Amino acid sequence: MKNYGNIVGWGKFIPEKSLTNEDFEAYLDTSDEWIYARTGIRVRHVVNQEEQTSQMAADAAKEALRMAGLRGHDLDLIILATSSPDYLTPPISSQVQHALGAKKTAAFTLVTGCTGFIYALATAQQFISTGAYKRILVIGAELISRWLDYNDRSTCILFGDGAGAVILEATEKQSGVMSFVLGSDGSKAEHLILPGGGSKHPPSHEMLENNLHYLKMNGNEVFRFATRILGSSLREAIREAGLEPEDIDLFIPHQANQRIIDSAARQAGLPPEKVFINIENYGNTSAASIPIALCEALESGRAKIGDTLAFVAFGAGLTWAAAVVKIIEREEQPRKSIWKLPILRWFS
Ligand code: UT7
After folding, report:
1. Where are the domains of the chain?
2. Are 48 and 102 in contact (CB under 8 A)?
3. 220 lines ligand 1 (CB under 6 A)
């Protein structure tokens, strides 16, 4: 009997502070018209000095756990997709595991840029289908604003911070990740890169003087790569799931650029009314963009239990990823444990 990983809980965290296109107009050579027409973005949210990636990830995960009626120690594994951790080491996944009270739960961080959430979902599905694990928390969390040069108009207007999380639970009913397509082309790595802080350009005065601690992007190259790869990846994922484009109830793409999303949907034969877009309000939140959009789609009723969803993303690497995911009714709610009584929680 095959095991599937049905999504039984979801949550998100969006920082309160926001930056509008008008905020950039006030000091940069840019305009609301240019930004909105070229990207579809009007607002993005950014953290304040006290907020960190681990806290955003933990807050999104706590919401997902609450919704699923689970606690940290019910989890068998945590996979956290991010390119913007609190520290190079220790792994942020262990920080979040501790913050959730998930004592001794296995946890690892997965770094594939903006495709991280789909890579993490596909990875989680492998652990579930082998029967190794039953409940896996998958998080996409990013705090790109700390690595942006706010005088570089070609990057700073694009990105926002945030986190989204889902819980996959083993079931024998067909659900969860029905198919996935993952890919990578390292020959194009320099088009989207944060050169400083790693082993090649470790922290130094020289690194700072040369601004190597900021994200650099050749936007046009990345744009062309994305419009070439996304449509075909999406079609392949739909085919692999044994489905036709008409069978997809909602397409939830990585929210990087409205024109890229339109092109991918068109190439995959998905009509505009089946595409979920929230880029206007958040900008590009990298690995967090799909789980945040998924939460909003489910909260607003655009996506429902029983739906078949398609995800697609591209990002640093350069990498790409697509997946078809089905969410079904949960078989049974977890038993109410006496340890959930507030007075007894302290002892558990
Ligand atoms: O998750 C993956 C992360 N990466 C991405 O999502 C990036 C994908 N790429 C893109 O979204 C687009 O390439 C951008 C939105 C970044 C840029 O749009 P574009 O249509 O590719 O513009 P471009 O780079 O070809 O630049 C066109 C012009 C240039 O001026 P000149 O050389 O023609 O005089 C840029 O300097 O637009 C200029 N420009 C701007 N003008 C006003 C670049 N950024 C801005 C800006 N405001 N913020």
Report:
1. 1-177+241-262+274-312+325-348
2. no
3. yes
What is the residue type of 48?
N
**Cα 227 to ligand 1 centroid, rounded to whole Å:** 15
Which protein residue's CA is at the shortest distance from atom 43 of ligand 1? 154
How is residue 127 written in tokens? Answer: 């652990």
Return the structure tokens found at 100: 């959730």
Helix residue spans in 69-199 (DSSP H): 92-99, 116-129, 153-156
CB atoms closer than 10 angstroms to residue 121: 27
Q: Under CATH, what is the fold of the domain 1-177+241-262+274-312+325-348?
A: Peroxisomal Thiolase; Chain A, domain 1 (3.40.47)
**Best of 38, 259, 284 to mutate for ligand 1, by most ligand atoms within 8 A of CB?**
38
Distance 251 CA to ligand 1 centre (A): 25
154 lines ligand 1 (CB under 6 A): yes
Size (the chain), residues: 348
Q: Who's near 108: CB < 8 A, 6+ residues apart? A: 78, 79, 80, 91, 93
Q: Quote the ligand 1 centre to 287 CA distance (angstroms).
A: 21
pLDDT in tens, 31-86: 999 999 999 999 999 999 999 999 999 999 999 999 999 999 999 999 999 999 99
For the record, the structure tokens of 155 come out as: 């990057």
N-terminal to C-terminal alpha carbon distance within the chain? 34
Question: Exposed, middle or buried, 148 (CB in 10 Å: 0-12/13-18/19+)?
Answer: middle
- Taking the model in full, what pTM does it have? 0.94
